[in-house]
Amino acid sequence: MKPVIALIGRPNVGKSTLFNRLTRTRDALVADLPGLTRDRHYGEGRVGERPFLAIDTGGFEPVAKEGIMHEMAKQTKQAVAEADVIIFLVDGRQGLTPHDKTITDFLRKSGRSVMLVVNKAEGMRYTSVAADFYELGLGDPYVISSAHGDGVNDLVEEALNIA
Ligand code: GDP
Ligand code: MG
């Protein structure tokens, strides 16, 4: 079985941008993944010789005002359950938000391995971009730019070591 990496985070932090970079496709490869639900996006990636599956949880973004948190939790829970390791994305330009804290609590309860990843950090110094996020209690943040690719290979190698 290929290790499964789930991309989790509130809307607009860059999950799909990272997913597209990891899998280099916009089409989910669901055909050969029996048992996995279809409302999220699955893709295959590779770092060096090591293949993995990525799940983009974009599908849980709210479509209606009612039950937003409920729907998000349901979708996120499913992706988390299928994952060997969670990449929890936050936005280094926007900084920490209450929504990030809610997701942190949710992920902590799951008992899964979580990597806290600060995205959109191109051109920013590690110490200044990471500082905001220590209070989440998830350790030293990884800092990347999904759009530019900075730090993405190292991140995935580390994720596969944990998975
Ligand atoms: P999602 O809602 O979490 O899937 O986020 P998207 O991947 O759709 O990205 C949301 C917005 O953030 C888009 O406008 C992206 O172009 C932008 N974005 C994503 N990654 C980066 C990044 O590394 N740097 C910057 N500056 N913008 C980014
Ligand atoms: Mg998305």
Automatic annotation (TrEMBL):
GTP 1 binds at residues 9-16, 56-60, 119-122. The keyword Repeat applies. Residues 3-163 form the EngA-type G domain. It comes from the Bacteria. Belongs to the TRAFAC class TrmE-Era-EngA-EngB-Septin-like GTPase superfamily. EngA (Der) GTPase family. Associates with the 50S ribosomal subunit. GTPase that plays an essential role in the late steps of ribosome biogenesis. This is GTPase Der. It comes from Undibacterium amnicola. The chain holds residues 1 to 163 of 447 of the full protein.
